[in-house]
Amino acid sequence: AFLMYRYKSNALVVLGDPIGNTASFQSLLDDFYSYAEKLGYDVIFYQVSDRFMPLYHNFGNQFFKSGEEAIIDLTQFTTSGKKRRGFRATLNKFNDLNIKFEIIEPPFSKAFIEELRKVSDKWLDGRTEMHFSVGQFTEQYL
Question: Each residue of 79-98: pLDDT tens digit?
């Protein structure tokens, strides 16, 4: 089993649950916490499932919910009805502004990659890429 983690500000930030044979998760975490303690670092878990919360709790972790991943069943989704009125208004505004959504499959032209890079650079506004949990702009990934 293994953990995906990164050092940040005197903490080892673990992305997601351990991966591998669940029978070895306890010993993996024992070793990981010993390693962190030896270095004087805190351990932080990010984007973990409810399934292993008791295990993390046994190591003294405290939990708070910082967000939720949206999962939409597209076979059942509809924009009709009173509940979706605001969403329809947003879609109509996008249409008025000539904003479009499309899926473009590779291979991509150099001009298209450069256009995407400009959008990414503008969004970053001089900041560096996040990398760890949200990825980064790379032509190979696209």
Answer: 999 999 999 999 999 999 99
What are the sequence ranges of the domains in the chain? 5-58
Give the dihedral sign, CA 16/21/22/27: negative
Backbone torsions φ then ψ of 72, nearest 5 degrees: -115, 125
For residue 22, CA distances in Å to 18, 31, 59, 63, 87 come to: 8, 15, 16, 21, 42
Specify whether the CB–CB gap between 137 and 116 falls below 8 A: yes
Question: What phi, psi does 112 have (nearest 5°)?
Answer: -65, -45
Q: What is the pTM of this model?
A: 0.64
Element (H, E) at 87: helix 85-96
Query: What pLDDT digit, counting tens, does each position of 36-82 carry?
Result: 999 999 999 998 988 999 999 999 988 888 888 888 999 999 999 99
φ/ψ bin of 125: left (φ > 0), alpha (ψ from -120 to 50), beta (otherwise): left
Q: Using CA atoms, how far apart are residues 99 and 77, in angstroms rounded to an integer?
A: 21
What are the φ and ψ backbone dihedral angles of 113, each rounded to 5 degrees?
Answer: -60, -40
